[in-house]
Automatic annotation (TrEMBL):
SUPFAM superfamilies hit by this protein: Family A G protein-coupled receptor-like
Biological role stated in the UniProt entry: Odorant receptor.
Transmembrane segments: 23-47, 59-76, 96-118, 139-160, 195-217, 238-258, 270-290
Topological category with respect to the lipid bilayer: Multi-pass membrane protein
Domain (G-protein coupled receptors family 1 profile): residue spans on this chain: 39-288
Name the UniProt record assigns to this protein: Olfactory receptor
Upper classification of the organism: Eukaryota, Metazoa, Chordata, Craniata, Vertebrata
Similarity comment: Belongs to the G-protein coupled receptor 1 family.
GO molecular function: G protein-coupled receptor activity; olfactory receptor activity
Chain's gene name: LOC109675079
Gene Ontology cellular-component annotations: plasma membrane
Subcellular location: Cell membrane
Highest rank taxon of the organism: Eukaryota
Keywords in alphabetical order: Cell membrane, G-protein coupled receptor, Membrane, Olfaction, Receptor, Sensory transduction, Transducer, Transmembrane, Transmembrane helix
Amino acid sequence: MVNLTLQNGFLLMGFSNDRKFQIFYALLFLVAYLLAVTGNLLIITIITLDHHLHSPMYYFLKHLSLLDLCFISVTVPQSIANSLLGNDYISLSQCILQVFFFIALASSEVAILTVMSYDRYAAICRPLQYETIMNPRACSHSVIAVWSAGGLSGLMHTAINFSIPLCGERVIHQFFCDIPQMLKLACSYEFSREIAVAAFTTSSAFICLISIMLSYIRIFSTVLRIPSAEGRTKVFSTCLPHLFVVTFFLSAAGFEFLRPPSGSPSAMDLMFSIFYTVIPPTLNPVIYSLRNEAMKAALRKVLSKEEFAHRKMHLKAMFKL
């Protein structure tokens, strides 16, 4: 094993040292990445182009897709490149950027999921005040707060994590610069500040989780009082995908970050990291589009020949100007 210094970077010991398995995992990640990029770009495009989807729910969904697109791009392309090149090395600057953007985007995703749950609560439980509560100004301020909170969280974690002295070989048993794995490299009793920041972030995530749960308790209690079965089905088709995304993302991330650290690497670490880094950004477009009639109708409209002809004429008119 190469003895690396902090200035030279780290070795990412991902899935396997076998060349055949490295290429196999790289191809799997490439397929997942292309699906995630295509799906999320499609949602962003559809919501942007279709004026019928210019409502708070789809406004937040567009930002969720943007976050997913950025989130998966932080870790997966680097892992694909390392596997294909047979090179496990990542420089210090790359690792710093990866940790910052990973934590910032993950925190922002938790925040936007919380905002989306409140939006559904306001729409279902307070329909008469909905337009007042979720006015354009409130929506834009919510999104600014989401991105700002994520950036602040990423900045704190990055500053503290890379100020901790590391002992021994700089080998990370993960396919990206994962903070729990990096803390295993810390010298004894040197990571109390990172634990304090992690406790703050965990508390914030727990508050978001409680807010989401309270929103959905109110939503389901209201939905069950709707006399029309069709009305209940429509509400559930909107809310259940969001609840699934929240549960899957937070449970996988929570298990990985909150469980006691083990002394030796395991396949469980890799599996749960995939559950919250790769699967949610890949599945979110499918979950939100396949069960949403408005999204499916907008997709058919965007892909129709008439719409293509209309867009082409519009672009020609713009260039003439």
